[in-house]
Structures are given as C-alpha cells and as structure tokens.
Amino acid sequence: LIIAMPHDALHLDPGTLQVDNTGFAVCSDMYEGLIDHKWIPSADGEYLMMDATEFEGLIAESWEHNDNYTVWTFFLRRGLKFHSGNPITAEDVVWTFKIYHKNLFTGSVALGMVSLEPENIVALDDYTVQFTLEYPMQAFLQYECQTAGGIIVDKDLILEKVGEITPMTTDPWLAKNDVGSGPYKLDHWTPGDEIVLTAFED
Predict the structure, then answer these.
(1) Does this model's pTM top 0.85?
(2) Residue 147: which residues within 8 A CB-CB, separation 6 or more?
(3) pLDDT, tens digit, for every residue of 68-112?
(4) Which helix (H) or strand (E) holds 26?
(5) What is the largest CA-CA distance in the chain?
C-alpha cells in the first residue's frame, strides 16, 4: 500500500509532534495506547468510522473505575512486545506517563486536561496500572485514545539509546527511530522521499 502525503514528516517522535499531519499519520500506525475508540462500518458498508462512545482494548485488555470516576485501573494483555522485542509491562506504562509524557509537549497538555499528577500513576503489579485523578472525570477514556498523549513507549530502549528525556525537546535519536508497539514498525525513512513501514507480526 502506497500513500501519497503532501509533505515529509518533520520527525517521528510522537511526544513533540504538534502541527505535522504526516508525522501524526505515521506515528498512529507505529504506536498504540492502552485503548482506542471502536471503529464500526458505515451505513453503506463502504468505510469504517469512529464510534466516539465505545472503546476497545489495545495494550489493555480491560479496565474499571471507582464509583466517582477518580480511580481508573487498567489490566494489560500478557505477552505483548514492543517492536524491539522488549516485553510490555506496567512499568513501561507508568514510565511513559511519569517521564515521557510529563516532559514533552503533547503529553503534558493531555495530563493537564485530566488533572493527573504523575505521582498518582502506579503499577500495582507487572500487568496492572492505576491512575488516580484529582477530580472525577467520566471522559477519562477519551484522553487515553489520543495519539500523542495516550501512546505507550519502550522504556528500556529509550533509556539505552537516549538516557534522560530533555523537557520540551525533540531528541535526535527519537526523531528518527521507532520505540512503539503498534501494528506497523519503521523499516526505513529516506527524508524527502519515503517512509516505509512493515507489518508487526509479534
């Protein structure tokens, strides 16, 4: 499948993408979050459309909330891997929100919208993550579906290749590499020519 885009991506680090339709389009295939909106057939069956009221699990297989919608608990699928081969665990989810999203533009905006302090994101075990919000929010799942603010990244690979995240800065390595777990992985990027993704089978 070949898709023509109006311009090349500025970079491929979803944490600092702001106005870059090509970058967002590529990253939406390379990365995934805990959940996403359900996609349903149109009335004529010709295409799929997003159902903004229904959700399906991606990295998370199920979730629950307390009575006043301040505590949300996500239960992760077991056996999932990042494109690097590293396993996806609750620690990756916690680190993504506490460090990656907290320090980078798109994620920090999303955290602010839901009144979520990083210290209130905890791993209860290897496959369970709990978010405690400052205020009740029935729409919390909507924010978890954002491409930038909701995606989960490969903690161990970032620490190996980048080390510390520099606040509000696009890291040169992250700008050109893949630390995701989405349905497609980066094969290569020739700036000004093509970005090639291949199916991730694992």
Answers:
(1) yes
(2) 14, 24, 27, 28, 31
(3) 999 999 999 999 999 999 999 999 999 988 877 666 555 555 555
(4) helix 21-30
(5) 52
